[in-house]
Specification:
Length: 206
């Protein structure tokens, strides 16, 4: 039965990866690795008393894997994006705050067995001899040869509020558009600081 169960899990994962790829826009290493990370967290998560919430510890592909596979999204506020730059995630029970954190264990990546995968995580890849798209495929192939072997997980309690506070609407004195604010501001951030848009070409925010 175990063999059949493993095959079924793998089939489900491949179907999830196809959905993530369509959502993400390309077949990316992070999306594939993220799918296996979400799957590992789901396997070890305790039965929920409340709603499922998630944390992504980086703002890259990982968040898309979480959104597609769990339904926790930025829009419904069940997904917290924490820009720590770590390739890790956590699925947890909003009521009990108990969850499973999954991370890439760099020490488990074998430089001889999966050399490009190791360079993918430590940032030492270069594209002089092998173009980026080709290296991306190599990273995926190398990961699929090890899968969960390079992942670690731990039971944790998440120190986040049940739901983030809701900002109040205000009308900007500069652009005359409504925006949401926590600080009772009278001018939106775009007008006051960022100036994201320009009426003239060739200018950039630095």
């Amino acid at each position: 039965m175990t063999g059949s169960s493993d095959e079924q899990r793998e089939q489900t994962l491949q179907e999830s990866i196809e959905l993530i790829t369509a959502f993400h826009g390309k077949y990316a290493p992070g999306a594939v690795i993220g799918a296996y990370m979400v799957d590992l967290a789901q396997e070890h998560l305790q039965p929920l008393q409340g709603k499922l919430n998630a944390v992504a510890e980086s703002t890259v592909c990982l968040a898309d894997s979480i959104q597609v596979m769990t339904g926790c999204t930025i829009g419904n506020k069940y997904l917290w994006l924490m820009n720590y730059g770590r390739y890790a995630l956590c699925l947890y029970d909003r009521t009990t705050k108990e969850g499973i954190r999954v991370f890439v264990n760099y020490n488990k990546i074998d430089a001889e067995r999966t050399p490009i995968l190791k360079k993918f995580f430590d940032g030492t890849r270069n594209y002089e001899n092998t173009p980026r798209p080709q290296q991306q495929k190599i990273v995926i192939d190398e990961f699929l040869s090890v899968k969960r072997e390079i992942l670690g997980f731990e039971r944790v309690y998440v120190r986040l509020p049940e739901k983030g506070p809701l900002p109040e609407p205000a009308r900007c004195l500069e652009c005359d558009e409504y925006f949401k604010t926590f600080e009772k501001e009278t001018v939106c951030r775009c007008c006051a600081r960022d100036q994201l848009y320009s009426r003239e070409p060739g200018s950039e925010i630095l």
